[in-house]
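Exercise 3.2. Students should predict the tertiary structure of the chain below and write it as structure tokens, then compare their answer with the key that follows.

Predict this chain's 3D structure.
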Amino acid sequence: MRSLEVAQQYFDGWNRRDPEAVLATMAATGTYSDPLTGGPVSGDAFAGYMKGLFSAFPDVSFELLNVGLAAPDLVSAQWIMRGTNHGSMNGLPPTGKPIELPGADFIRIANDGIGSVNGYFDSRVVPDQLGLQVLVQPTAIGPFTFGAAVRAWSGKTEKPGAFSITVLRARDLKDAAGVSELSQQIATELLAAPGFLGFVGATIGERMLTVSAWEDAEAPKQVMRGGVHAEAMKKFWSGELGGGGYTAVYVPDHVNTMWVRCPSCQKMADSETPRRTCACGATLPQAMSYW
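Answer key:
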């Protein structure tokens, strides 16, 4: 019965959203692992993992569906985790959506507490319920490195007169998450900036790249005067953020015609044709934005 009591104390700590209470049930060398931890974690790393979950889902709770002894020192527990995404997760803004994740833990009890917890659940369930994309692809193949990207658009369709580029090298996953979160905050701030057209950010391996389109080469200078970008630069120079990088502003040599396909004759037409009318007489569709 002691094994079941220790396991109940463990889940009570999770339901109180109290990392210290959970850690108090663990043995001195006790470890925790699940599909997201990348292997067994313990101590401060385990506490940090819990704090990240509690921050993303401040109301998270675990309903125990079935708890029993698989062996005298092994507890099996089937549960459903519920919560609402009111905090940032992996650098993304809160969605406000609820989640319901079924899973199971196998808890090995040692003399001085829990020796190990092995958790099992489908790691796609939470992103799917939050409306997030789950992308499965290789990290690298030969000279190609793969990653993920995000775009923010101001709603303007003007031709870009300049592009500002920032390239950073992240030192580790935590560093990359910090850069990603600040980049999205900067992009959100820029949406209201005069002359700003759009933003594309990409994370590819350790490299983190942002390309912003502007109406002219003077417009990007305003980001240096304050706001989140200035805060990010302070962190870069103080050693809090990034392992290296550079910024630049490029002016286009020329920007070719924005073409659109006529829905009637299927031929390409210049999107700036007067009255947006094709040579065949049909009305042309709205052209996509340049950035």
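Discussion points: The domain at 140-250 is CATH 3.30.70.100 (Alpha-Beta Plaits). The chain has a mean pLDDT of 91.
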